Amino acid sequence: MRLHHSILCALLALSVAGCGDLAKLPVAAGTGPDPTIPPPANTLIPTVNIAPAKGWPAGATPLAAQGAAVARFAEGLDHPRWIYVLPNGDVLVAETNAPPRPEDGQGIKGWIMKQVMKVAGAGVPSANRVTLLRDTNGDGVAETRSVFLEGLNSPFGMALVGNNFYVANADAVVRFPYKQGELTITAPGAKVVDLPGGPINHHWTKNVIANADGTKLYVAIGSNSNVAENGMENERGRAAIWEVDVKTGNHRIFASGLRNPVGMAWEPESGALWTSVNERDEIGSDL
């Protein structure tokens, strides 16, 4: 009876999580140089509205802008999270997910998050590999598929500098030797630098980009919490972008105060490093 009661309470909590606070402002109000900033709206259980993960029906594709088209390049990948295109046109895909964490599924909130991740297609173990896709005849479909690297640790960001291929694992940047055109790297990797990792590792994705001359790597590292609820001692070196010397592994904080930076790119005219940042959660649907 007690177990039955607990299950009912958990299901009720999950249903409540999908209700409650709703966004009221139009999208335009939250964009541009002078967005509308409403006061925070805290709720006992955060509102979530997750689109179930499911494949596209045969022959169906997303709608594209006028003059563009969408085609299925590859399918059957295991939780693909990041893409990197090599100079010869080969497409690398990080098939990855979060490493196990001690709080996974713990408590009502943890249980809800676990169910939400399942609905979103993210409730799977990490494949821990990078897969190479190659379009050999230029028809927009990858005829060749190969395991490029495996045995990684929740890999995400990738960067090629000369003959060195860098992978940002959840806890370190690793370098591998690369030869153009090869389908698989079998040589062992060499650690460049340790990164803030577990056991919590709240924002586990680590991205990487190189500067123009390939002497420095810039590594995006998210915070270890939503809003420092795990203590500031667990935030050392996080919520930041590191600058790393590729030869020595020496590093410094290049930019800080970035809760969860992910995508990075160089602005071609100014040379400035741009990044997309995911800011804090659970403060209302309009923030």
Topology, please?
Layout lengths: L1 H16 L62 E6 L5 E5 L11 H13 L9 E6 L9 E6 L8 E4 L2 E5 L3 E6 L12 E5 L11 E5 L5 E6 L18 E6 L5 E6 L4 E6 L6 E5 L10
Antiparallel strand pairs: 1-2, 2-3, 3-4, 5-6, 6-7, 7-8, 9-10, 10-11, 11-12, 13-14
What do these coordinates show?
- It is a single chain.
- This protein has 287 residues and is mostly beta strands.
- The chain is built from two helices and 14 strands; from the N terminus they run H-E-E-H-E-E-E-E-E-E-E-E-E-E-E-E.
- The chain has one domain (2-19, 76-277): Thrombin, subunit H (Beta Barrel).
- The chain has helices spanning 2-17, 107-119, and strands at residues 80-85, 91-95, 129-134, 144-149, 158-161, 164-168, 172-177, 190-194, 206-210, 216-221, 240-245, 251-256, 261-266, 273-277.
- The strands form four sheets. The protein has a four-stranded antiparallel beta sheet, with no helix packed on it. A four-stranded antiparallel beta sheet has the order 5-6-7-8, with no helix packed on it. It has a four-stranded antiparallel beta sheet with strand order 9-10-11-12, with no helix packed on it.
- It is globular, with a radius of gyration of 21 Å.
- The model is unreliable at 5-14 (pLDDT under 50).
